[in-house]
Amino acid sequence: MRAVVLISGGMDSLVVTALANFLGYELAAMHVNYGQRTWQKELAAFRNICSHYDIERRLEIDASFLAHIGGSSLTDSSIPVEKADLQASEIPSSYVPFRNASFLSMAVSWAEVIGANKIFIGAVEEDAAGYPDCRKVFYDAFNTVIELGTKPDTAIEIQTPLIELQKSEIVKKGIDFDVPFLYSWSCYKSEGKACGICDSCARRLRAFQQVGIPDPIDYEERPDYI
After folding, report:
1. To 10 degrees, what angle do helices 167-176 and 199-211 make?
2. What confidence tens digit (pLDDT) does each residue in 94-152 have?
3. What are the backbone dihedrals phi and psi of residue 182, each rounded to the nearest 5 degrees, phi first?
4. What secondary structure letter does DSSP report for 80?
5. CATH superfamily membership of 2-211
6. Cα within 13 Å of Cα(55), Cβ side
7. Cα-Cα-Cα-Cα dihedral sign, residues 48, 104, 116, 14
8. Per-residue burial over 51-77, b = 16 or more CB atoms within 10 Å of its CB, e = otherwise
9. Which of 30, 44, 76, 100 is deepest in the core (most CB within 10 A)?
């Protein structure tokens, strides 16, 4: 019962970590620095989350090639981070081209080496309108890729337990598991106080507002999103 957990440091990956821990897996935590604007804050969040859940086996990966490839406001400072539009259906500038496929490939390699048979990731279908690599069909297809591309005696499966939940439901699940939301970081733009107006901040703030409890992290702005 060993599992690799992809921990970005965000709210969803925090709740997935708590769930995998509750299910009794021996956790191995993986974090990827890919040249994103808030990499230092996300790395600190990853380390705090690992310490909270006593995860000793950790892998921090440098994937700065994604920043060199560019094409995203998260990795290219010349592209501004857009203000949130929660009704938008087009792919936003914050999309990092095929990022999750790169992350999953690394996680599968590590899982094969350390003998893990599950990979947990906090993907959420609610984000799929903007990010095609957050769709359930993508992860179903990737599980087929794993089956075809690993050793015959390997049995590794991606788990996406939050995929069909709304962000507010994820907050509620986090409350049920008493997760340390203060340790998580979701802002695309800032490493001091969260901006409160990027897409990720807006979805997170709206979720907490819908549940009716304050988000414990500091924000420069806290707009009402409901």
Report:
1. 60
2. 999 999 999 999 999 999 999 999 999 999 998 656 799 999 999 999 999 999 999 99
3. -60, -25
4. P
5. HUPs (3.40.50.620)
6. 29
7. positive
8. eebebeeeeeeeeeebbebeebbbbbe
9. 30
* Domain spans of the chain, in order of start: 2-211
DSSP states of 94-129: T--TTHHHHHHHHHHHHHHHHT--EEE----GGGGG
For the chain, state the CA radius of gyration. 17
Q: Is the dihedral of CA 91, 93, 94, 98 positive or negative?
A: positive
Retrieve residue 200's tokens.
């990720």
Task: Find out whether 101 and 131 touch, Cβ atoms under 8 Å.
Answer: no
Whether the per-residue pLDDT at 155 is higher than 80: the answer is yes
Strand order in the sheet with 57-62: 57-62, 26-33, 2-6, 118-120, 157-159
